[in-house]
Design brief:
This protein has 203 residues and is an alpha/beta fold. The protein contains seven helices and eight strands.
Amino acid sequence: MRPRFNPTTNTPRRCAVQMNSIADIDTYDEALRSFSWSRIWELFDGDREYMNITHECIDRHRALGTAISVKFSDGHSERYSFAELSDQTGQFANWIKRLGVAEGDRVAVVVDPSRAFYVGMFGTMKRGAVAVPLFTLFGPEGLALRINDCNPKLILTQSDPAPLAKHFPNARVIAVDEAFWKEIAAESPVFEAKTRTTGPAYL
């Protein structure tokens, strides 16, 4: 039996592990001999009915240290651990839920790769909403085309939120500034990420 998903604690529930796990395959020939679509599920804590991408990518790897390293244009670097991202995506998911973002709603993330970008993206998926990353160098027309197409409930931006709020009055526009992080920090890091594989976030 493979580990089972426990969304309440953000940790897998450990059972007896198969000795011939698909994760132990290390040659192409062995992969061909043992391949079956059903065995793919051995790699995940989720199953055909329930799965959460953020749990699979981040939460179940809390003990592994650095998850992401980003080098910025000014030369400085930042590293974000699995544990930090697990907690902060849980806080973000609780925060957007409190703001009224439901499963299937879209959240546009107009932010360069950074802590805010990854927390916003994976926190949105933890909530079961649809994360829409948007390139920060899009001009007004390119940005408008994509925002009008996805009709987001929430837009995160690293710039002044006023222009976006003016052009997209149906969306709540929030800057990822000090006030944003203060609100995130006030939320619980525990989020029950029980999302269905048939949900809009995973189709």
